[in-house]
Design goal:
Layout (H helix, E strand, L loop, with lengths): L2 H19 L11 E9 L2 E5 L4 E5 L5 E3 L2 E5 L4 E6 L4 E6 L2 E5 L4 E3 L9 E4 L2 H6 L9 H6 L4 E2 L3 E2 L2 E2 L5 E2 L14 H20 L6 H13 L2 H14 L4 H12 L2
Helix pairs in contact: 4-5, 5-6, 6-7
């Protein structure tokens, strides 16, 4: 064997060893969720070129990713919450918005009003990652039936995507409440009251937060009470009606 052939064989062996220990990451993997559409009025579409996603109808409770683009029509309002940093933005239409890692910006070349900014505590924002109201991105694109997949975030089943919806609820089974759990729920209810005082009447952010806490501890009777208060403002909302049915099935 020549020296040159030996070197080539050595390089091939080293390359194979490196590839063997590298984590297998699928190409074109979706970017992580960075936030949530906490409120939406009027018409808006969103798309993501990085995911080769064509424009689809935006909805409240949709999780957002870096690279998402939103086009909001005149008279509409779009509210985004970023999990990292708790930045909450309210954009008024017409607006073209590009989602970043921790904040949004107006689309390049677009002249529009700056958003109204509000900063929530990181504790509140992080808790809302597990909100049981989240809308599947794939469901929005296809316009088909709801889809669910279990994802553990503080022990909460989160509505995401991939699996066809079934009659059973993605919410976890009720469990006995420990003294610590009851204490944390009481604290969350106080936080909710503070959020409610600071939020506008049509802003469901405080309720989304409280639902996340109740879902974590399996307090479904209290969840239904919160959902009913939300339905009073949005009668017949399909996402709220579905969540209420799921919560009732656990009682």
């Amino acid at each position: 064997m020549t020296v040159q052939n030996a070197k080539m064989m050595f390089c091939c062996v080293i390359t194979a060893m490196i590839l063997a220990i590298l984590p297998l990451t699928p190409t074109g993997a979706a970017a992580p969720d960075v936030g949530l559409v906490t409120n939406l009025s009027g018409e808006a579409v969103y798309w993501n070129h990085q995911e080769n996603q064509t424009p689809a109808q935006a909805q409240a409770f949709l999780k957002i990713r870096q690279g998402d683009n939103f086009e909001l029509k005149e008279g509409g309002s779009l509210q985004l919450l970023y999990f990292s940093g708790g930045r909450q933005e309210t954009w008024k239409g017409p607006a073209s918005v590009q989602v970043g890692e921790a904040e949004s910006r107006a689309a390049e070349g677009k002249t529009q009003s700056a958003p109204e900014i509000k900063i929530l505590s990181s504790k509140v924002a992080n808790r809302m990652k597990g909100a049981p109201l989240v809308v599947s991105r794939s469901d929005v694109r296809t316009g088909g039936g709801s889809t669910v997949m279990r994802e553990q975030t503080h022990g909460v089943g989160v509505i995401r995507s991939m699996a066809p919806a079934k009659e059973d609820s993605p919410l976890p089974r009720p469990k006995p409440l420990t003294a610590q759990a009851q204490k944390e729920m009481k604290q969350a209810e106080k936080v909710y009251q503070d959020l409610r005082k600071q939020a506008k009447a049509d802003d469901p952010t405080p309720e989304i937060y409280l639902l996340s806490v109740y879902a974590e501890y399996g307090s479904y009777k209290k969840m239904i009470e919160v959902i009913d208060s939300m339905l009073a403002k949005k009668p017949g909302d399909p996402k709220l009606m579905k969540l209420k049915a799921q919560a009732r099935s656990k009682l």
